Q: What sequence folds into this?
């Protein structure tokens, strides 16, 4: 590969000059350019904590954007709130020859206070750099000041996206004695240079020569691949409350203090709880009655205002306003359960991470709150932000996840039950009638359970025109005319959704001369093959079962000229069965796809991509019908 030269002049700013030798002098190594759309030339973070409530954090980030594939790699953003302010900022843009093109001042930044939350004190500064002469380099230097409490620190994570390599990155942190410092390293055994230094209540870490990561299908998230280090205090102060992160129990106990005095219900709500539950024949009946009441009378609105990002709204306030966030609604549900005499817990959980690191409690790992009712022989988990989900159903965002049960002095980590793979599937039944001139009439039934049910549940309230667009896209017929649409939901601990409709299209069967070309399975045509590239990471497979049955009636005056061959694939992670046969004046298509959940090394699955591509070819196969002579 041709060497790429990018020379930089000395860049010095009043708040932390960066030496020229540390930025870019000379050429970029081939290994950093290979598979990359951007190169981080320098990523530097310096964290200085003065006491339990105040800190300064200084950042430098210089990125060379190599091509137009991802210009957003050169953009800037910084989110602040009432405890964090952007105090200094400077940006500089250089062209391919190292000539300074422009300076970026703090006054050039855009600022938005838009938030999906009803109440939030956060706002974001951002700058979108648009420069078309690639490659170019942009360097940002900025400072943030924290006041009124610190519950965590920024990560050392210089790789922010796929196809981004790192030339040099370093991080240093110093905290006061009373705070203490904990850290956890991830993926630090890669092909790059790294260094670590420790001192009393502080440390530094650096890496260089980190190659770009290429996105691969059936793989873990980027976060689980790139080198990064998480930091957290041992003790913290936040908005005049004290807490410890030495254990998950300590964190849960702090959360418990935030609920003190916030579980009392108004008298009228207490009376209503008893009206709803006193005649119930079982504890489970009481829980369901209150869950249904929550669904009928409240709505979800997120609140992230100061300590409100951690503290629930008082139950009495939720009762009067009829809305709350995950904390407020779960706290309200627990208050009603307690009034009804049902043992219950308030629990913090993540909808992103299944596992909590047992040796490294941190707020970064949790983003949600749920409630659970504890019955003599059962535990019922309650998603209070979406009580339209069936009662007793543990949705895929929390199923199998670790959670912290919050209870004063007795908080602990538990694990929610998994969704059973055996109950999750999707099925399509379709009959196709094709007229001699190529007009297709489809009668379709789609059925979805468990996770697939969750994904498509939005269709219950979707507008008719949006539903029609979804059906046309799913059936891959842009001219499709939808009629007789109906949708039926079966609620319960094993929920399902059934869609039925009729579809008419002139684009399903393609007519060419005396032939009609008909897709074997028009509903799976969007699946694409593996691209030819060397596999690096293991295959991470989620359970998925699809079973499709399609009956295509041969139009009058046509005969079958060719049918795709039937196929069967059996492997440790993929089973596929495709049967296509002519019976009388019909062609019967039965296709079944089963992905078996697990993590498989490349060595374990040397033929997976070949098998997968064969499956895709079979799903995308075409039946050829030929017109008979008059």
A:
């Amino acid at each position: 590969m041709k060497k790429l030269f990018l020379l930089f002049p000395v860049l010095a700013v009043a708040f932390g000059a960066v030496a020229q030798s540390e930025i870019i002098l000379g050429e970029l190594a081939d290994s950093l350019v290979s598979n990359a759309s951007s190169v981080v030339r320098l990523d530097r973070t310096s964290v200085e904590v003065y006491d339990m409530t105040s800190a300064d954090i200084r950042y430098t980030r210089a990125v060379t954007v190599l091509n137009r594939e991802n210009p957003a790699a050169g953009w800037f953003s910084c989110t602040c709130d009432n405890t964090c302010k952007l105090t200094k900022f400077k940006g500089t843009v250089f062209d391919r020859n190292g000539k300074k093109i422009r300076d970026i001042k703090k006054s050039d930044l855009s600022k938005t206070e838009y938030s999906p939350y009803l109440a939030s004190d956060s706002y974001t500064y951002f700058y979108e750099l648009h420069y078309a002469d690639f490659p170019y380099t942009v360097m940002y230097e900025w400072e943030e000041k924290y006041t009124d409490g610190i519950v965590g620190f920024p990560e050392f994570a210089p790789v922010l996206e796929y196809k981004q390599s790192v030339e040099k990155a370093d991080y240093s942190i110093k905290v006061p004695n009373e705070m203490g410092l904990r850290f956890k390293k991830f993926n630090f055994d890669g092909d790059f240079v790294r260094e670590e230094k420790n001192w009393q209540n502080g440390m530094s870490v650096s890496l260089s020569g980190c190659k770009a990561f290429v996105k691969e299908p059936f793989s873990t998230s980027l976060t689980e691949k790139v080198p990064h280090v998480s930091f957290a205090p041992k003790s913290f102060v936040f908005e005049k409350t004290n807490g410890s992160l030495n254990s998950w129990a300590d964190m849960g106990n702090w959360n418990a203090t935030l609920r003190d005095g916030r579980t009392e219900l108004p008298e009228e709500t207490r009376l209503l709880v008893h009206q709803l539950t006193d005649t119930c024949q079982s504890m489970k009946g009481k829980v369901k009655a209150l869950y249904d009441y929550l669904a009928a009378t409240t709505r979800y609105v997120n609140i992230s205002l100061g300590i409100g990002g951690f503290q629930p709204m008082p139950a009495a306030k939720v009762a009067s306003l009829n809305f709350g966030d995950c904390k407020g609604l779960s706290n309200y549900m627990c208050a009603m359960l307690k009034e009804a005499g049902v043992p219950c817990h308030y629990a913090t959980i993540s909808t992103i991470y299944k596992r909590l690191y047992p040796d490294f409690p941190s707020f970064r790992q949790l983003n949600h709150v749920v409630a659970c009712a504890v019955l003599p022989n059962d535990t019922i988990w309650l998603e209070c932000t979406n009580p339209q989900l069936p009662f007793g159903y543990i949705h895929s965002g929390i199923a199998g996840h670790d959670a912290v049960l919050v209870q004063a002095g007795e908080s602990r980590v538990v694990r929610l039950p998994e969704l059973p793979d055996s109950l999750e599937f999707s099925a399509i039944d379709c009959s196709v009638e094709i007229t001699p001139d190529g007009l297709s009439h489809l009668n379709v039934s789609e059925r979805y359970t468990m996770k697939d049910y969750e994904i498509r549940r939005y269709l219950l309230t979707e507008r008719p025109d949006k539903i029609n667009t979804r059906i046309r896209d799913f059936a891959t017929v842009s001219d499709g005319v939808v009629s007789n649409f109906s949708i039926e939901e079966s609620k319960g601990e094993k929920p399902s959704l059934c869609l039925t409709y009729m579809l008419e299209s002139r684009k399903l069967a393609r007519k060419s001369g005396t032939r009609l070309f008909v897709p074997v399975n028009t509903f799976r045509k969007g699946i694409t093959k593996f691209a030819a590239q060397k596999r690096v990471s293991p295959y991470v497979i989620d359970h998925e079962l699809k079973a499709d049955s399609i009956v295509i009636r041969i139009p009058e005056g046509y005969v079958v000229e060719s049918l795709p061959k039937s196929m069967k694939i059996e492997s440790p992670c993929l089973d596929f069965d495709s049967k296509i046969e002519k019976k009388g004046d019909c062609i019967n298509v039965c296709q079944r796809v089963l992905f078996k959940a697990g993590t498989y090394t490349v060595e374990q699955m040397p033929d997976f991509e070949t098998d997968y591509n064969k499956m895709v070819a079979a799903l995308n196969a075409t039946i050829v019908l030929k017109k008979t002579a008059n």
Summary: Confidence is low (pLDDT under 50) at residues 1-16, 115-119. The chain has nine helices and 40 strands.
